[in-house]
Design a protein that fits this description.
The chain has 102 residues and is mostly beta strands. The protein is 4% helix and 51% strand. It is built from one helix and eight strands, in the order αββββββββ. It is globular.
Length: 102
């Protein structure tokens, strides 16, 4: 893994080679949530697991404007697993936390 050579761990990783992480950013509402935008790049259906490199309290799908879709939600006990159509862009919002008490 190229990132390991440079001593930088990715914030999130994905399990499918054809699914690429396009953007990782803070949510526009300044909540501290992380927004991850991914897409399927090979023109085929793909199933991928999104693995945050941090503890989280919840994750859910949003649209491109970061509005909750309500289709899929995940808890820390579940894998964030996505089924993508060819060239589909998916946005996942992840609420960090659960590690230490304040």
């Amino acid at each position: 893994m190229a990132n390991a050579l440079h001593g930088v761990e990715p914030v999130v990783s994905v399990s499918a080679a054809s699914v690429l992480v396009e953007a990782v950013k803070l949510a526009e509402d300044r909540s501290g949530d992380l927004v991850v935008r991914l897409y399927e790049a090979a023109g085929a259906r793909a199933r991928s697991t999104v693995v945050p490199n941090f503890e989280f309290t919840a994750a859910w799908r949003t649209d491109l404007l970061e509005r909750t879709l309500g289709q899929q939600t995940w808890t820390p006990q579940e894998c964030i697993e996505l089924d993508l159509r060819p060239f589909e862009v998916v946005t996942v919002r992840i609420s960090p936390g659960g590690g230490q008490d304040g």
